[in-house]
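Need tokens for this chain, all 281 residues.
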Amino acid sequence: MQRVVICKPATRKMHIANGYGLSVYELALLNEAGVPPWYGAVKHILKVVNGIKVDAPSQKSREHHATTQCHNCWAPKSEAKLFLCAQCKAAKYCSKECQKAAWTEHKVHCKVAAASREQIDTSTKKIQPFGHVPDLPTSPSELASILQGWTNKHRPLLARSLVHALDLHRDPKAHITKALFVMVDWVSLEKPTAQRFKVVSAVVQEFTSIPGCAGGGIADTRRNLDAVQRGKGGYGVAMMIIMCVSCTPPALNVAPVYLHKGVDKEPVDARWLDVLTAKLG
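Here are the structure tokens for all 281 residues:
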């Protein structure tokens, strides 16, 4: 993705185009960045890009979900010493036995995640922040690592939001073609990982319509993981995609969520987005 070069026109006003309430200039910026004008966070992104003052990060207290667990037996880090999978650097296990037991289910996602991490680690491109974000990492691998850590800290709430957003009770196959796309902003100043980003918007999208990432590849990964999960008696696998919109190219973290049998029979909370933004926005 190319860097967005912002060349503000003189004081003349741009006319509104295409029914989205955006000027031709704004539509051009979004097109260059690969962001469709119908996304919920578009106005917020354009405010940041154009240097308009936005709300300061919320100082209210919130829950910090530090549920780092073994990816096989789900033992929390408070009860066992965990180690990372050497290949993907994402999955954690409490023992070699658990790692071996989880390998059949993990190997597909592991290979994809490892390849993606290698691509990020070897990238020579620098992150270009939108607006004044002095402490945003310019290294793609550093930013991706922080975003992954933030996702892990809040995985229970994000997974809950994904399940409610898909509304499997109404559409039992929604997880096959759709993902929860969560847009977050970088929060400056000294912050722990759990507070490093804030949610600005979230929406369910078809895999192939997700900007800035290989939607088809994500769908293929989900399909392989889904087959393993269903073979073990589960409902399947859904995907959530966390994108930092404070920079270009945007940083992405794609995380699978394993759905238990009967999840489509559970009541849906239509206020899932309000809950998500209240806690993490």
